[in-house]
Amino acid sequence: MKRALLDQLDTMVKFDLPARLVEAEASQIAHQLWHEEHPEEHGHNHGSIDPTDEHKALAERRVRLGLLLAEVGRKAEVTVTDAEMTQAVLAQARNYPGQERAYFEFVQKNQQVQQQLRAPIFEDKVVDHIMAGAKVTEKDVSKDELQKAIEALDEM
To answer: How many other CB atoms are found less than 10 A from the CB of residue 60?
Structure first.
C-alpha cells in the first residue's frame, strides 16, 4: 500500500530539486549497490564509483518524495516521539549482542544516526496520515476483473 501511494505521488508531483541533494543521493545509491555487488570489499579503499542514469533517476524520486513527505509531515505536525525513538534504538541494538549499552551511547552522541533511525518512523507516520485521509469507495467487479488486477499486481 505504501509503495502504491508513493508511486502515485511520484507521478502527480513535480518540482525543481536541489541538484546537490540529488547528486549526493545518487552517489550514495551507487556506492551502496557497488558494495552489495562486491561483498568481499569491507572498507572504502576502492576507486570512485560513478552513478549511472538509473541511480540518478532513483535519486530524483527519493529526494522528491522525501521533500514532499517532509512538507506534508511538517504541515500536519507529525512528530516522532521519544518512546518511538527508544524502540527504534533498542531494535537496532539487538543487532549487537553484548554491546547494546555501547550502541545506545553511540546513538545518543551521533545526530546523524539518530536521524537515520528517525526518518523511516517519520515517513511511516506521514504515510499513515495521508492514508487516514483517503476516501475509500467500493466497486463491484467480476471474478475475471479481480483476477486480472491480481495478475497486474504480481507483475509489478
So the answer is: 16
Handedness of CA 2, 6, 12, 17 (dihedral sign): positive
Q: List Cα–Cα distances, 74 to 125, 145, 147, 149, in angstroms.
A: 12, 40, 40, 35
Amino acid 88 reads A
Judge contact between 126 and 72, C-beta under 8 A.
yes
Q: Is the Cα torsion angle 11, 34, 25, 48 positive or negative in sign?
A: negative
Q: Angle formed by the axes of helices 111-132 and 53-75, to 10°?
A: 70
Crossing angle for the helix pair 100-109 and 111-132, to the nearest 10 degrees: 80
From CA 56, how far away is CA 36, in angstroms rounded?
A: 18
Residue 47 C-beta-side C-alpha neighbours within 13 Å: 2
Condensed to tens digits (0 to 9), the pLDDT of residues 136-150 reads 889 899 999 999 988
What pLDDT digit, counting tens, does each position of 5-38 carry? 999 999 999 999 999 999 999 999 999 898 888 8
Tell me if the pTM is above 0.70. yes
Estimate the share of the chain in helix, then strand, then coil, as percent rounded to the nearest 5: 70, 0, 30
Percent above pLDDT 70 for the chain: 99
